[in-house]
Amino acid sequence: MVARDLSPWALSPWVVWAENLRCQRLKDCSGPADICRMTSVASKRGRGPRYTSLAVAAAGVLTVLAVLLGLSLVSLSRAVADQRRASAEQVELGGLAGKLGGASDLLTNEARAYSVTGDKAHLDAYWHEIDVTKTRDEVIARLKQLGVQQDLFDLLAKAKANSDALVKTETRSQRLMLDASGVAAADMPKPVAEWQLSAQDVALPVAAKKATSARIMFDDQYTKDKALIMDPVGQFNTLLTQRAQAKVDAAAAATSTATRWLVILAVLTVLA
Fold first, then answer.
1. Which of 126, 113, 72, 130 is nearest to 214 (CA)?
2. Domains and CATH numbers, the chain
3. Is there a contact between 226 and 79 (Cβ–Cβ < 8 Å)?
4. DSSP secondary-structure letter at 131?
5. How many other C-beta atoms are found inside a 10 Å radius of the C-beta of residue 262?
6. In sequence order, which residues have a C-beta less than 8 Å from that of residue 133 and are 6 or more positions away?
7. Mean pLDDT of 20-42
């Protein structure tokens, strides 16, 4: 019997292919050594570099997506913070304008009440607001602390200045009422005691002093002077609302954009 030459050169291509397939399936290299060795070398040369390149590329893509995802989270966080900050600023500034207008109304109401009734409680409440509570001064100080835009600050500063001017009319009214009531200057609030009535006011009889005290608190001039306080407050609120809304809208748009990118990157990360 003639022995078969089993060397790789003596085998037909179909035999080589079949033997390679058997080695791969059974992970058995008991066949011709050259065939198994050739299969192993071919496998290493044919598949290794390609799979390695794909793995590196995939890792790079995942890294980029992770970085972009992190940046989107930071952007979203900042957008939400900006939106909250804009809303909080609008609330606080609107509250300050309301406080200034409210303090002016309190002074008007107490001064008018005193000019009509002569009740000392109204006089005390008036000067307690000016000397102790000092709401209007606190509003201006807080605006400076917040560093609001100059045009906004100027509006409330103007309202405060006009309110101070109106105090002069209210002080005159109070002095007329106190004089008519026979109260000594030493028992009057200091600013009222220091107010110098005109010779015409001093010459008025008691009834006329009381009537004048009330009249100047309700006449057209007082109404005009009062409007000089409230008009800048209204302008402040209008301008504040417009600007604050613009800030809120911009922050909301940024939040929406950041959220959209966050979702897209999260999906791409999962698919990768």
1. 113
2. 9-48 (no CATH), 62-271 (1.20.120.1730)
3. no
4. I
5. 17
6. 103
7. 51
